[in-house]
Design goal:
homodimer; alpha/beta; Rossmann fold; six-stranded parallel beta sheet; five-stranded parallel beta sheet; 17 helices; 16% strand; globular; NAD binding (chains A, B)
């Protein structure tokens, strides 16, 4: 049963509990396992990768089986329906169109005395994309990972995803990868995949940035290798927070909550509403829709543990609670959603109005679905083209320009106790005199 | 003595050794200490902060002494020279002018069928700036941290820096903070400062993002709290790589190498040159300048362990070696530096020509001096306004627009086994029929 509480109750503590749902005591124990996997792969390369693939994924591979072959890639197209292929292609086009907007560009500025300043953007040399596998398959996550990397101009993009029974990779995943321009795919998942990408093995190349969501082992491995390589973020289980008014359709709101909960037994689904009738109707609709939900057990778990309806006094109060939670997905199922937007400070993605279910953003509206979770929207953003770009500052001074700032540099260098800093300027301008 | 090797020697291994200079065996031991500090501050707040300040910084403070007072802030202005104040103000203006360029702005795009897509940029609510202290004082680092935060519009910016003997904070640091608009300053450093900012204490507020360079304890603490808060990067000791041709002035090149080495006994200073005479002359000049260098012992250590001159066959070969090293600072002391820029893929900041010593960028050219180190320029960039901003994706669909993509969403949701995703769209468009 989806609980209903009022704002008088200790709402903030409840939201905090839900936000912190992955910070469990077991993490330290899992971290020890992950450290062991990282060390083994660093030292033994493919051998360790294959060992852990057998242990954790129950698939016994030879080194030459790690990479998905050209014939598998070709065959995948035969195995997906025409409808699915077209859907993947539509998603590709829309994701690409969105991500091509406002890509940072290199610039220089010419100042007085021949001073040139600027920023030069370049892509990482190699990117590693993690695509979760296991029970489900996520062709949409392939697109969300790969398209920004391609737009950034990353010369070598490699993908890793765990093998399923029979060593196979889901055909929709292989088709999505090819549609997004990724041909180099390795069947390896978990911490061993992150280790292989961070350190390189005989078969799998070392990359410069590792992106994409994964389970707790993948996330811990990404945190530990951060610094050796770049990472996009630390992903936790998915979450939605819906702000709804009396005009929202309770069946739609209930379905959106379940669309979040069905991802993961750890998913969170929260409704903040000003309307008591809506709260009760959503509660009933969730129960009803759960009855014959194909993923009932896991979905029910998420709803029971991390589902919540809060009755709030105003939409502004709802926005303030939402800001404290900083949700990955925020739906504004209210009459004038744009009026509330200025009150929203932290959210991964905002879905406006009664006709924008999160599903449309999850698959094909264009914006990225790899978003900050567990409160990370307070400081982080969606995966994007920028994730695969970095810039070099550009600085060029003339002797005249240097002369003009020499005194100031001297004062600062002296204050910081750096004599050669002063000398490096003084010696250059004295030459002129 | 600064060693000279040729490209025939195992240059790549040598550069790798220098790049990896902080990945020492002691890190794991230090990490245990840092974990203990984090846990203690999380549980005991100010009490633990004061305990570790006494233990590590030898300063016994009361809780009410943690925050720098208004009268201390005022008094600082009396203690800096007019020249230094003017230098700080010049640096402020130039850093602000550079950082105000090309700041990301919110946008929306109106598509067909009333689809609205966009990105909404917002600052973090609270930022914590770390400014190293200890033996030296870094007013320039205050500016490089604080100015981007202010431009981003961060409502609450707090600064932490370790107390020196007599509990005092360097007056130039306090003046720089005020010139950059930061008034809330706490005298705490090390891992205990990072813990206080990540978890909050009775006195020090919990922040959303922690930025700024620090020693190995600060860096380890930042890595461990990443995920609870955002961080800018993991800083290692500073480094310069200079590419110079036969026209470069050996005394200038030597001074620039020492200007790097004088920062830290772990700093790295590398010269790649096509000219044997220059190599030898730089070697001699470095020796000569070291003789009466006020920081001779530490600077000599850096030069001996992490200094290197490599004779290369061409400037392009130098660029390729530089790309492998991905230096924090890259100086192109060559006749046509702009011709080599397209060959440079990874560098934190590029200083072009014979008249652009790194010192000018370090203090006041405008670009940030908080830069990726230890090879991180392969995937990371300078601290910037973006470090304090994040965006929310904006998605609004109409029923008509939803209707058009319903089939595609159905295909993708089915492939991913997410029935409520399909329902969330179907139920909305059926209502219209």
């Amino acid at each position: 049963m989806l609980r209903i509480i009022t704002q008088q109750a200790d709402v903030k503590a409840e939201l905090q509990r839900i936000c912190d749902r992955t910070h469990d005591e077991q993490v330290l124990h899992k971290e020890a396992t992950v450290r062991e996997v990282l060390q083994a792969v660093k030292r033994q390369g493919d051998k360790a990768v294959l060992h852990y693939t057998a242990e954790f994924d129950n698939q016994t591979l030879k080194p030459e089986e790690l990479r998905v072959t050209g014939s598998e890639l070709d065959a995948a197209y035969q195995q997906v329906s025409k409808d699915l292929l077209q859907a993947i292609q539509l998603a590709c086009r829309q994701i690409e169109a969105f991500h091509r907007q406002r890509v940072p560009k290199s610039w220089v500025h010419f100042g007085d005395d021949d001073v040139v300043l600027g920023k030069r953007y370049t892509p990482v040399d190699r990117a590693g994309l993690y695509v979760p596998g296991g029970r489900a398959a996520y062709p949409s996550t392939v697109l969300m990972n790969a398209i920004p990397a391609k737009i950034a101009g990353v010369p070598r993009v490699v993908m890793v995803t765990p093998p399923r029974a029979g060593k196979a990779i889901n055909s929709a995943v292989l088709v999505a990868a090819q549609e997004a321009g990724v041909q180099e795919i390795y069947r390896v998942g978990g911490a061993q995949a992150i280790a292989a990408l961070a350190y390189g093995t005989e078969t799998i190349p070392k990359v410069d940035a590792i992106v994409g969501p994964g389970n707790i082992y993948v996330t811990l491995a990404k945190k530990l290798v951060y610094g050796t390589v770049g990472i996009d973020s630390l992903a936790g289980p998915s979450e939605v927070l819906i702000i709804a008014d009396e005009n929202a359709n309770p069946v739609h709101v209930a379905t959106d909550l379940l669309a979040q909960a069905e991802h993961d037994p750890m998913a969170a689904a929260i409704l903040l509403t000003t309307d008591t009738a809506l709260a009760k109707n959503v509660q009933v609709a969730v129960e009803r829709q759960l009855v014959d939900h194909p993923r009932r057990i896991d979905t029910e778990k998420a709803i029971a543990h991390y589902g919540l309806i809060v009755l709030v006094e105003s939409l502004e109060a709802a926005a303030e609670l939402s800001n404290e939670f900083a949700p990955e997905h925020l739906e504004l199922e209210i009459k004038d959603p744009w009026a509330l937007v200025p009150h929203i400070r932290h959210a991964g993605a905002i879905f406006l109005g009664y006709s924008t279910p999160q599903a449309v953003g999850n698959f094909l509206a264009g914006p990225n679905h790899i978003l900050p979770t567990s409160g990370a929207a307070r400081y982080a953003s969606a995966l994007g083209v920028e994730t695969f770009l970095k810039h070099s500052s550009i600085i060029q001074y003339s002797q005249t320009a240097l002369q003009k700032v020499a005194g100031a540099i001297d004062a600062l260098a002296t204050a910081e106790g750096l004599p050669s800093h002063t000398d490096s300027v003084r010696r250059r301008i004295q030459q002129e005199e």
